[in-house]
Design brief:
Elements (H helix, E strand, L loop, with lengths): L5 E9 L1 H7 L4 H10 L4 E7 L2 E7 L4 E7 L4 E4 L5 E10 L2 E8 L7 E7 L5 E7 L2 E9 L1
Antiparallel strand pairs: 1-2, 1-10, 2-3, 3-4, 5-6, 6-7, 7-8, 8-9, 9-10
Length: 138
């Protein structure tokens, strides 16, 4: 099992604005979110199957704590409450499916994968739109 613990900084990002657009975020808010999320600071603490992930930007900070295989509550990237379930898809990849608590919207989720060279790849999805962000340890 890989150790995701550490402080991470983003190296690259693809399709973040497209993801927000697929979620129905208006253009003005998308521009603010893209600018704010251009340099997120991510702190991950992992103890076995338990995770704490804090993502900080200039506009918003999110914190989630969860255990792999146990449902938990969090928010979609656009701030809607959801139930989430994280599972190991492979030895190095954690995949999470999200289900909105109320209302309708695109099918959302995320995954985090450790590469052999120590990078962390975060993917966020909204239906068939995929945002990929690559992080390196600080």
């Amino acid at each position: 099992m890989p150790n995701f613990s550490g402080n991470w900084k983003m190296k690259s990002s693809e399709n973040f604005e497209e993801l927000l657009k697929a979620l129905g975020v208006n253009m003005m808010l998308r521009k603010i979110a893209v600018a704010a999320a251009s340099k997120p600071a991510v702190e991950i603490r992992q103890e076995g199957e338990s995770f704490y992930i804090k993502t900080s930007t200039t506009v918003r900070t999110t914190e989630i704590s969860f255990r792999v295989g146990q449902e938990f509550e969090e928010q979609t990237v656009d701030g809607r409450p959801c139930k989430s379930l994280a599972k190991w898809e492979s030895e190095n990849k954690l995949v999470c499916e999200q289900r909105l608590l109320k209302g309708e919207g695109p099918k959302t989720g995320w995954s985090r994968e450790m590469t052999n060279d120590g990078e962390l790849i975060l993917t966020m999805t909204a239906d068939d739109v995929v945002c990929t962000r690559v992080y390196v340890r600080e």
